Amino acid sequence: MLKVHHLGRSQSERIVWLCEELEIPYDLVRYDREPTGAAPPAYKALHPVGTAPIIQDGDLVLMESGAIAEYIARRHGDGRLILGPEHPDFADYLFWFHYANASVLAAVMMDVIAARLGAPSATGRKSRADIAFDLVEAHLGKATWFAGSQFTLADIMMVFPLTTMRLSVERDISDSPNLLAYLQRVGERPAYRAAMAKGDPGMTPKLT
Fold this sequence. Notes:
- By secondary structure, this protein is α+β, with helices and mostly antiparallel strands.
- The chain has two domains: 3-81, Glutaredoxin (3-Layer(aba) Sandwich); 90-189, Glutathione S-transferase Yfyf (Class Pi), Chain A, domain 2 (Up-down Bundle).
- Helices cover 47% and strands 9% of the residues.
- It has helices at 13-22, 41-44, 65-75, 90-117, 128-140, 153-162, 177-187, 190-199, and strands at 3-7, 27-31, 54-57, 60-63.
- A four-stranded mixed beta sheet has the order 2-1-3-4, covered by helices on one side.
- The longest helix has 28 residues, at 90-117.
- The model has no long low-confidence stretch (mean pLDDT 95).
């Protein structure tokens, strides 16, 4: 059976959510973080890189959330939640699927690191995270989901930096009605609620 190694408050919530959306059987193994916030030694021992998420599928050990998401959707989900090149929203699907980690996650992580180091906030100019959130708000004013009218892997990839990562560094999104409405749609999905309850039972999802 597919085994999902989930580190609390991490990108691996995406994989738990994906399995719930696809309604495929999986074995969830939870790990709590060390007091420092680091992954425990047992988690780091699973893969040479030692970062979340990590899955095992038979003899295969795989990491990187984008790779895992596509692997599971294709190998165990019959390609569900993936848009092909023939779909009119294929370009949006590709962009947001990759933008999630390549740009949004990296930008928000810069804010997290700056906050931990006590670095002063930049004034008079927008940070990369500000630009990313502005782009998200504008796009969600035109689309129900990131790839258009259809919920896809792009949403599963994008939600983590828009929600759980805001537990590490506060961001006021009260002036982003499109994003707030989108997060409410996410929060209404039974699979998302089930995944968060199983993966991080002591955490309230950051949907506002």
